What we know:
Layout: E1 4-9, H1 17-30, E2 34-38, E3 52-54, H2 57-63, H3 88-93, E4 96-103, H4 105-120, E5 126-131, H5 149-170, E6 173-178, H6 185-193, E7 198-200, H7 212-228, E8 234-239, H8 248-253, H9 273-288, E9 294-299, H10 310-328, E10 334-338, E11 344-348, H11 349-352, H12 370-378, H13 388-391, H14 403-406
Parallel strand pairs: 1-2, 1-4, 4-5, 5-10, 6-8, 6-9, 7-8
Antiparallel strand pairs: 2-3, 10-11
Helix pairs in contact: 1-2, 1-10, 5-6, 7-9
Amino acid sequence: MKDSILILTGGGPAPGINTVIGTIAKCFIAHNYRVLGLHGGYKGLFNGEPDFEEIDFFLADMIFNRGGSYLRMSRYKPSDDEFVNFNTKFFRDKGIKLLVTIGGDDTATTADRVSRYLEEQGLPIHNIHVPKTIDNDLPLPMNTPTFGFNSAKAEAAHIASTVCEDAKSSGNWFVISSMGRTAGHLALGIGASCHIPMIVIPEMFNKTHITLDKIIRLCISSIVKRRISGQDYGAIIISEGVFHSFTKEEISQCGLHLSVDAHGHIELGKAPKAELFNGVLENKIAELKLGVRTRPIEVGYSIRCQDPIAYDLLYCTQLGCGVFDLFKQGYTGCMVYVDAMGETRPIFLHDVIDPVTGKIPPRLVDINGDMAQSIITHLLSFITPDDYEAAAKYLPDPENYDFYKILEWA
């Protein structure tokens, strides 16, 4: 019987997953391995009859440049008690020597648990994880992006640029809500790429608590600043991650009922975030009698399954080749990492997982770094003390809409 490897995908889709799957399959098939793909994520490993199929060269070649995930994904996360149901027989019967997991932080932490369990069971099975997320919030060295991020950002920027063109054409304002469960990388990247005059991300509130009122005042600050500058149109982009800091009272006042997924995260994808922000903003605009029309735009599921751009096609190909190289070098319990010079190295999961929480801490936007501060200083439009006199024509208390005072940066 040929030695085999097993590939599974966890979490949500990201451009490049199929590139990783296809590249890994081609590498191992060329070296006489059998490649198995597991449907249903980790759930398949805790099932007496796992749903799997063999991936041959022609299937790998057909899918490698396509969006989505050929292997059906799952957010299933086993409890410690469920490991008694782990299907070790499947690994033995199929001659599996390597388990490749493709996913984000939750998939990676579960990969670490699986790796340790296999070791405890005395099974000579390696585990290598490929880090994936459009949120770009895995702590890779040297600010290396996670695969899928650049493709998702490119598609989102295309959508947002069309929205901005509509704003110019119609004289409206648009409120865009962007994916980004914890960090604001995606919203910041989209906003900067499209020169959106107000970007709101969680990291901006590093000196004050995030509230819905503060977000709305930042929006008004931009609208009024643009008006007094002769630009009576624009867009605002808000990262969905701000929701995690809202109090239960704020969420209740908004009329939202938020559920949680298998990992305990708020299912922000189900919440009409752009509509919420737009509705509250419209009420404030009416109260101030600004006479501005706004429209909500949601940027989320529409960017997860697009075909990967050239950057991710190459990057994911390197990651797939790197899985084979690390396996042949004897590595296990690690993530594959490709640096800016194209060198492949392992990042061991036990080195990045927080021993207290048992999770990989998210990589946040460096709000004090040159990139973020340059975007804020040069591209955003907002009220400062120099604008108080002109803004008083539209606002009874311009200082209450001062960008730096709202964030307590002043």
